[in-house]
UniProtKB/TrEMBL annotation:
GO molecular function: structural constituent of myelin sheath
Organism field: Megalops atlanticus (Tarpon)
The protein's name: MARVEL domain-containing protein
Keyword Transmembrane: yes
GO biological process: one example: myelination
Membrane disposition: Multi-pass membrane protein
Swiss-Prot/TrEMBL keywords: Membrane, Transmembrane, Transmembrane helix
């Protein structure tokens, strides 16, 4: 005689998720923000790389963050697009908040470092010069930026700020979902 099985012991709870899966994710504000994070994060990556990273001590972190968060956000979006979020048993609302909080911290630090790199050269820019000398911080580091590198760093700073705002909005919306459904 077979023993009756306890259905609670053989089934798993459904994943906690309040975002749609498949292409419907792209119709939500959260999905649109993740797409913007990928787009503008990729621009930060491209801009810093195209400036030949004139201040590696500061811009190395910017490169690390832009590449890491680009890959992370792309993987996050793919999980929802392919419907894996329904198959993986976890609290997706909580993971959404944690991921966007960490990304916000990383990108805020990257934005500050990129802004510091750019601001250090701002006093030396004029229309007549072809090079910009970075003399701040007053240390043994002396970097010369040409006007092209300076302009690229200004654009990278602006886009790093935009990406930081996107991650902040995503974190706020994720926190609201987590509190509502948690």
């Amino acid at each position: 005689m077979s023993e009756p099985t306890n259905p609670a012991a053989t089934t798993f709870p459904a994943p906690t998720i309040s975002l749609p899966v498949g292409l419907d994710i792209l119709r939500t504000y959260s999905g649109a923000l993740v797409c913007l994070e990928i787009l503008f994060g990729g621009l930060v990556w491209i801009l810093v790389a195209s400036s030949n990273v004139p201040v590696p001590l500061l811009q190395g972190w910017v490169m690390f963050v832009s590449v890491s968060m680009f890959v992370g956000s792309a993987a996050y979006l793919v999980v929802f697009l392919l419907g894996f979020a329904d198959r993986i048993n976890t609290d997706w609302n909580f993971l959404d908040v944690v991921y966007h909080f960490v990304a916000l911290l990383f990108y805020f630090a990257a934005f500050v470092l990129e802004a510091a790199t750019t601001a250090a050269a701002v006093g030396m820019v004029s229309m007549n010069q072809t090079t910009v000398c970075m003399t701040r911080p007053a240390s043994n580091v002396f970097t010369i930026l040409d006007v092209r590198q300076y302009s690229i760093n200004v654009a990278a700073t602006v886009f790093a700020f935009v990406v930081t705002l996107c991650y902040a909005c995503s974190m706020f919306m994720g926190f609201k979902r987590w509190r509502m459904h948690g």
